[in-house]
UniProtKB/TrEMBL annotation:
It comes from the Eukaryota. It comes from Morella rubra (Chinese bayberry). SUPFAM superfamilies: DNA/RNA polymerases. Residues 11-252 form the Reverse transcriptase Ty1/copia-type domain. InterPro entries: DNA/RNA_pol_sf, RVT_2. This is Retrovirus-related Pol polyprotein from transposon TNT 1-94.
Amino acid sequence: MATEIAALELNNTWTVCTLPPGHVPIDCKWVYKMKFRADGSMERHKARLMAKGFTQKEGFDYFETFSPIVKLTSVRLLLVVAASKKWHLQQLDVNNAFLHGDRHEEIYMQLPPGFTHKGEHHVCKLNKSLYRLKQASRQWFLKFLEFLLAHGFTQSKADYTLFTMKTPTSFTALLLYVDDIILAGDDLLVLNDFKSVIDQQFHIKDLGQLKCFLGLEVAHSSAGISVCQRKFALDVLIDFGFLGAKLVPTPVE
């Protein structure tokens, strides 16, 4: 929790002030979860501050909320093309992605639990977007879209989360799912250079070669790329209590 608060303050997410007359602050809460690796082992514990967006009022606290989401067809197609052309596949995770979104509405929020500040009747005036705000996903996407277009990428008309950049010496494709990114291209040096550019702007976690994305487990070999959903299938069996069920040759038996 202390790490998350430090990141929020470093990003200038809010300014502590007295609540102006006529404004009602929204509430917030901490959400705790465990993050797992592709093999199912636990990677780390996470604490994330969430705004209670359900208390926002449309037309006052927010207006537009739509944000595109990646098509699974695009993910599969990118993997097929990368395998056939022997492209490099890299994966990134943007740290605190929604905090980078520019906030346009005037929003006030109660002080987060565990956040100490001298004085009474103070609230947080949000300077940046925050998780679970109605418009948070849209504001983050627009921010990243602006960044990609400024660096020479072209947005696909078939899938708004797919971006490509072609130069005389290289081709790069980028696929975005909220804060998870796939980078694909024929020049690893170009990919690494662009990862550094993204990191300077947004601060990323470089996950290296693509291994898991949207439940798809990706394995690389000299023969190409193979994709499976072993962990997802096991999780489904566990959730429905069929992990120890008897095996049968056909579904109807």
